[in-house]
Design a protein that fits this description.
There is one protein chain. The chain has helices at residues 3-9, 24-35, 40-52, 54-68, 87-113, 117-125, 127-130, 197-222, 240-253, 277-292, 308-344, and strands at residues 70-76, 132-139, 145-151, 156-158, 165-167, 188-192, 227-230, 263-266, 352-358. By secondary structure, the protein is of the alpha+beta class. The chain has one domain. A 3-stranded antiparallel beta sheet has the order 3-2-6. It has a two-stranded antiparallel ribbon with strand order 1-9. The chain is elongated, with a radius of gyration of 31 Å.
């Protein structure tokens, strides 16, 4: 896949704003299209909402930050064998540590060669928001993988929910066709997530936008208290127009002088009690945070940030990252490690693996 060429072919999307005029009916239709494997417009909408919704943007940043703090390593599988007169098993006892060390060395060399491993891990983490993430293998001169190229989600689709992944070279709307190229998964790392966060976020964002629009209209109507000028008594009829003009000038500029006897009268602009707009918008924020933290949080910040309350929030994202690290590690183990080890150690059991995990803190020096 020549991504540079594909991006040039799809520059028309650069000027397409999926949020302009978006209705709830259209958003639901796009989500339903995604169930059929039609992802181009849906993923373009996901991209726009990630950029425009402050809460989703913050959740994304916090989750990515926690994932990026993880450390990668290649671990050996330790095999313990009990003494036995069987020569084959006895030999296995001595061969396994050597095999594990050699496999670990081969994997470590393969990963150290990747020039964007950190970026690749972050892109796989974004599958939690977008539903899937594909990394294409770019090989060096000797045929070894040297780069994991992130594939924009709108350049992929499939026939049905579980059909094979296919190129959408034109990023066109609609379903995949039989003649659209099928991805050779031997050249990709793929992570899929059954229930992406953005499916919740799109609906919440649209509801927030509608509430904000109504709130703006409310503020425009009732935000500035209405003022009335009561003219002095016994104003001559031929002077009423002059008094009226002077009163309007005073009200419009909020300053000026009026004839003796004139009074300023105010009217309560809204007597319907508390408006529902802020609560409704806050509830949509809570839905996004709930989805983005697996129900662990309902808000991203609260009083006490920087103290125990702030630390609890930070720990929550670290816990989420540690759990997500297991899933991302498994993607690398099954789709990259297995190929490296099968090529270099054909027929041998797997005795080493790639792992993402929180950085191990070094023990503090003990004073003598």
């Amino acid at each position: 896949m020549n991504l540079t060429q594909l991006k040039k072919m799809n520059r028309w999307r650069d000027g397409f704003n999926p949020l302009r005029g978006l209705t709830m009916m259209q958003a639901v239709a796009l989500l339903e299209a995604g169930e059929r494997g039609e992802y181009a417009n849906l993923q373009w909408l996901f991209r726009a909402v990630e950029r425009r919704n402050a809460t989703l943007r913050a959740v994304k940043a916090r989750r990515l930050s926690a994932v990026m703090r993880l450390d990668w390593s290649v671990e050996e599988i330790k095999i313990e064998t009990s003494p036995t007169p069987n020569s084959e098993i006895s030999n296995l006892k001595f061969e396994m540590p050597s095999l594990a060390a050699r496999q670990a060395e081969a994997l470590r060399a393969a990963y150290e060669r990747i020039d964007n491993l950190r970026e690749a891990v972050g892109f796989l983490a974004l599958a939690e928001f977008r539903g899937y993430a594909h990394l294409e293998f770019h090989r060096g001169g000797d045929g070894g993988v040297a780069h994991f190229e992130p594939v924009p989600q709108w350049l992929l689709f499939r026939q049905g929910l579980n059909g094979p992944w296919q190129y959408n070279a034109e990023a066109r709307s609609g379903a995949a066709r039989e003649d659209d190229p099928v991805l050779d998964l031997n050249d990709f790392l793929v992570r899929e997530v059954e229930d992406p966060i953005n499916e919740i976020a799109v609906i919440s964002h649209l509801r927030q936008s509608l509430s904000q629009k109504d709130w703006d209209g409310f503020v425009e109507t009732y935000g500035i208290p209405p003022l009335f000028i009561e003219l002095p008594p016994n104003v001559p009829a031929d002077k009423e127009a002059l008094y009226q003009a002077q009163a309007e000038a005073v009200i419009g500029d909020s300053r000026g002088t009026m004839p003796n006897g004139a009074k300023v009268q105010t009217v309560t602009p809204y007597s319907g009690g508390t408006t529902p707009f802020s609560e409704h918008i806050r509830y949509q924020d809570e839905c996004i945070v709930l989805a983005g933290t697996g129900g662990k949080l309902t808000m991203l910040a609260q009083s006490g940030s920087g103290t125990l309350a702030g630390g609890a929030h930070e720990n929550t994202f670290d816990e989420i990252a540690a759990s997500e690290a297991l899933e991302i590690s498994e993607v690398f183990q099954k789709q990259f490690d297995a190929r490296i080890l099968a090529e270099k150690f054909p027929g041998a059991p797997v005795r080493a693996f790639f792992q993402l995990a929180p950085k191990k803190e070094k023990p503090a020096d003990v004073a003598a």
